[in-house]
UniProtKB/TrEMBL annotation, chain A:
<dbReference type="InterPro" id="IPR019128">
    <property type="entry name" value="Dcc1"/>
</dbReference>
<dbReference type="GO" id="GO:0000785">
    <property type="term" value="C:chromatin"/>
</dbReference>
<dbReference type="GO" id="GO:0000775">
    <property type="term" value="C:chromosome, centromeric region"/>
</dbReference>
<dbReference type="GO" id="GO:0034088">
    <property type="term" value="P:maintenance of mitotic sister chromatid cohesion"/>
</dbReference>
<dbReference type="GO" id="GO:0031390">
    <property type="term" value="C:Ctf18 RFC-like complex"/>
</dbReference>
<keyword id="KW-0235">DNA replication</keyword>
<protein>
    <recommendedName>
        <fullName>Sister chromatid cohesion protein DCC1</fullName>
    </recommendedName>
</protein>
<comment type="similarity">
    <text>Belongs to the DCC1 family.</text>
</comment>
<dbReference type="GO" id="GO:0006260">
    <property type="term" value="P:DNA replication"/>
</dbReference>
UniProtKB/TrEMBL annotation, chain B:
<dbReference type="InterPro" id="IPR018607">
    <property type="entry name" value="Ctf8"/>
</dbReference>
<dbReference type="GO" id="GO:0007064">
    <property type="term" value="P:mitotic sister chromatid cohesion"/>
</dbReference>
<protein>
    <recommendedName>
        <fullName>Chromosome transmission fidelity protein 8</fullName>
    </recommendedName>
</protein>
<dbReference type="Pfam" id="PF09696">
    <property type="entry name" value="Ctf8"/>
</dbReference>
<dbReference type="GO" id="GO:0031390">
    <property type="term" value="C:Ctf18 RFC-like complex"/>
</dbReference>
């Protein structure tokens, strides 16, 4: 506690009011609406982030602002009050100081009446917008050669600084969002690479492995990049191919191709734009998969759906990565695709949903109707 | 668009205070447009407890000092023109939010005001009870 001192004219006088004493509360000489001053309620644990200037407010004029720390995103909501909230600044803040001491009486001055305060709620980052922005102009094969028409090429290209300006997500969330989209930074711009181009790259890599007798479990980064470059692929994209389809072994420059990612890639290639009978799909899939790899239908969880028509089972592409991340939109598309879902089919399409404060069970309760004809049958989920 | 939240106070944020009461304080019409420096009332702490009275005109409110469950930051919107940034920024000014204070306590008056006009009556009561030696005066 500070020692009581006559002449304190601000918040200290109010907060440290001694027993048996009285102070005057008056309107500040600069009292006014002061709309540029606002109150933000926040959790004690976020305080260090704010005091060390690690938070930022993000949003376009037509969006509701969010507050981002390094790792999380919070919605900002204004909560009004009907009480009179008199704000009393401390006396030592020169811009608000008011050194009136009337007849030796202490006066604490009210600078503003606060109409309410802003509150924060943790929310999922708005990464669908990131996806939308990056898919405006995916990297395509033509770009390897054509460099002239810069004007046209630069349209729909975004640097990191553009993305943090436009996407409501924290830096960490944005970074993992870029990774989830398999985006790559090319000449300073974050890009997704066209699927056909990735297919070309992967085939060339597999082809070269056969020619050069490389093991798909131990690919030397320099060798791979050199060979792909000599085939006309830019260095950056050759590296990107290893990042997308492989995992680094140890900390060196050796890569192991990821069996699931490679197999899923070929399944998607086969099913692009058409549905296939199960047998013919499986036959072609097995044929396309590189030697030494084992494909199994389980790998396609969250990538394909099957349906029975008479005696035939058909399979078609339905990738979770193509679905929106907002739960309401996600469930609406899911039930458009299929009015009734069994849990084992549904789970791969909703397990990535991230709603702070709401579990997967909570989401199901909110967005689905659960029916279970008899106890021994699997529950079925339909639209609410 | 990004708005940086700036803070120049480091760990030692100046503490502001809130005096909060229900409803509104009406100002007499003749002072309506010159509130500056006008007295609102007297804040008194009659005992060593965290109990306070706030006397506004003929009304007395009783309340207490309560810690906020979560702290409130006082933010000020500042427009900064980028003088040092060369290359002619198309945005004339960049908006920043500056942390200028923190609030951890408020003196909250959540009861209805007691009219001080009724004081004469209480003195009458006191006098009536004077024969019973000690009378608590509230």
């Amino acid at each position: 506690m500070e020692e009581p001192c006559l002449g304190h004219t601000g918040a200290e006088a109010v907060l440290n009011l001694q027993s048996n004493s009285t102070i005057f509360i008056a309107y500040h000489p600069h009292f006014g609406s002061h709309d540029d001053i606002m109150l933000l309620e926040l959790d004690e644990k976020l305080l260090p982030d704010v005091l060390h200037q690690r938070v930022v407010v993000r949003g376009q004029p037509d969006e509701d602002s969010v507050l981002c720390t390094q790792s999380k995103t919070y919605a900002i909501k204004f909560v009004g009050t009907s009480n009179s909230v008199f704000l009393v600044p401390p006396s030592d803040q020169s811009e608000f100081s008011d050194n009136t001491v009337e007849n030796q009486q202490v006066v604490a001055s009210v600078f503003k009446v606060a109409p309410g305060s802003m509150e924060l709620t943790e929310v999922a980052p708005k990464l669908d917008k990131l996806k939308m922005l990056l898919f405006e102009n995916p990297y395509r094969a033509e770009e390897d050669t054509e460099m002239e028409d810069l004007e046209a090429i630069n349209k729909g290209l975004y640097k990191w600084d553009d993305l943090v300006d436009m996407v409501q997500a924290s830096d960490d969330e944005l970074r993992s969002g870029l990774q989830a989209l398999s985006a790559v930074e090319i000449d300073g711009y974050w890009r997704v690479v066209d699927e056909k181009y990735m297919d070309m790259l992967l085939r060339m890599l597999l082809h070269s492995s056969v020619l050069n007798d490389w093991s798909l479990d131990a690919l030397n980064e320099d060798e791979v990049v050199n060979v792909l470059q000599s085939d006309g692929f830019p260095c950056k994209l050759a590296e990107h191919c290893l990042h997308v389809y492989g995992n680094k072994v140890d900390s060196g420059c050796v890569w192991k191709l990821n069996e699931r990612t490679v197999c899923v890639h070929f399944a998607r290639e086969i099913l692009r734009g058409e549905k296939r009978k199960m047998e013919s799909f499986m036959e072609e899939w097995m044929r396309k998969i590189p030697e030494g790899m084992q494909a199994s239908f389980d790998m396609l969880e969250g990538e394909v759906l099957t349906e029975r028509h008479g005696v035939n089972t058909w399979v078609h592409a339905f990738s979770v990565s193509s679905l929106p991340s907002a739960p309401a939109e996600r469930f609406s598309i899911l039930f458009k695709e299929r009015p009734k879902w069994e849990w084992k089919d549904l789970e791969p399409y909703i397990r990535d949903l991230n709603v702070p404060g709401l579990s997967l069970e909570g989401l199901l309760l909110k967005f689905t109707r659960r029916t279970q004809p008899t106890m021994d049958k699997q529950p079925v989920f339909s639209a609410r | 668009m990004q708005i940086k939240v700036k803070c120049s106070c480091g760990e030692k944020c100046p503490e502001w205070a809130i005096v909060e009461l229900q409803g509104v304080v009406d100002v007499q019409p003749q002072f309506q447009d010159r509130l500056q420096n006008l007295e609102i009332g007297q804040l008194c702490r009659p005992s060593s407890q965290e109990v306070y009275t706030f006397t506004v005109g003929y009304h007395e409110l009783t309340g207490s000092k309560v810690p906020l469950k979560k702290p409130l930051l006082v933010l000020k919107k500042v427009k900064r023109s980028d003088v040092d940034r060369s290359g002619g920024d198309e945005d004339s000014a960049r908006v920043e939010l500056e942390v200028i204070g923190i609030i951890r306590h408020r003196i909250l008056f959540k009861t209805r005001p007691k009219a001080l006009i009724s004081k004469p009556q209480s003195t009458v009561k006191e006098r009536a009870g004077a024969s019973d030696s000690i009378v608590p005066i509230k």
